[in-house]
Amino acid sequence: MKEKDLILDLQDLYVRFEVEDGVVHAVNGLSLQIERGKTLGLVGETGAGKTTTALSLLRLVSEPPGVVECERLIVDGKDVMALSQKELESFRGNDIAMIFQDPMTALNPVFTVGDQIAETIAIHENISQTEAQKKAIDMLELVGIQGERADEYPHQFSGGMKQRVIIAIALACQPRLLIADEPTTALDVTIQAQVLNLMRELRDHYKTSMIMITHDLGIVAQICDEVAVVYAGNIVEYGTLQDIFNRTKHPYTEGLFNSLPNIRDRKAELNPIKGLMPDPTNLPQGCPFHPRCPYADEKCKEEQSVKWVSDTHYIRCIAYEREGFHIKLEEKR
């Protein structure tokens, strides 16, 4: 992939939190590349390091106790780790923006929604307050909220409407990369579908690249072009949507699919992944998934390596190289 085609080039990201009880290893050598105009799904259980990775892209990890290190972090040609605090203020909003997980707490309850959108616009664009307010109203209407509601406060909006306001704030300055962190978690199923349709339409309208952080594989199937499956702070499987859904190779990814309800057989029992996510203050040696993996052997406890399955698809698993391993997985699907 040519560098000019990349909106994000992240290499070897490590994030740790040095606290009294020890060192929390939240992200462990994670690398990502996202092509301009594409949507990437970051998938994994709670505690896998997905949100910490996203906050690192905006340099929003609190230091201390957080320590962020990486070989390279380039967003739309900018070396993010080299930006000053003043440059970061412009970078956040213009180049990259984030839709946070809980719309109920992401908005300031003492300011009108119009003022909160206008504030974002005024910070990044050299326009008057009147012009900023007018653009805020336009953004509300763009996300399906009547412009006259700009003078109302967050408590006057439903959960779905608040999430639309958050999307309006995130897109107000037309960022080149949008991060959505579990954007539909607090919403009911009907509103979830509306919000996802809205995000898809706005992504196409603005030609925005997107990172969708979620544990919901259904959302991934609807909106993502590529998928990165994250476990214990690193990517264990990466590929196109078709690679991950139709050519699953990693035992952890397989476990995620097996954990889904079978809509064709409502009496079928769920088959969850055994065990729990590893303690990030005491990660296992070798492959961090080996204590839960049905295919692990002694070698898995000592090492892990990346195996490219195709030009678009790789896994972090040495068990894959064993004869018959991938056949077993395909037989279970």
List keywords for this structure.
333 residues; eight-stranded mixed β-sheet; single chain; five-stranded antiparallel β-sheet; 32% helix; 24% strand; Rossmann fold; 13 strands
Q: Can you describe this structure?
A:
- The chain is an alpha/beta fold and 333 residues long.
- The protein folds into 2 domains: 251 residues, Rossmann fold (3-Layer(aba) Sandwich); 79 residues.
- Helices cover 32% and strands 24% of the residues.
- The strands form 2 sheets. An 8-stranded mixed sheet has the order 7-8-9-3-10-11-13-12, sandwiched between helices. Strands 1, 2, 4, 5 and 6 form a 5-stranded antiparallel sheet that branches.
- Helix 6 packs parallel to helix 7.
- The longest helix is centred in the middle third of the chain and has 18 residues.
- The protein starts with 5 loop residues before the first strand and ends with a helix.
- The model has no long low-confidence stretch (mean pLDDT 88).
Give the structure's gist in a few sentences.
This protein has 333 residues and is α/β, with parallel strands linked by helices.
Largest sheet: 8 strands, mixed
CATH class of the largest domain: Alpha Beta
Mean pLDDT level: 88
Which fold name fills CATH's third level, the topology of the largest domain?
Answer: Rossmann fold
Reconstruct the topology from this structure:
Layout lengths: L5 E14 L2 E14 L3 E5 L6 H8 L8 E4 L2 E4 L2 E2 L5 H10 L1 E4 L3 H4 L6 H12 L4 H14 L16 H13 L5 E5 L7 H18 L2 E6 L2 H7 L2 E6 L2 E7 H6 L4 H8 L47 E5 L2 E4 L8 H8 L1
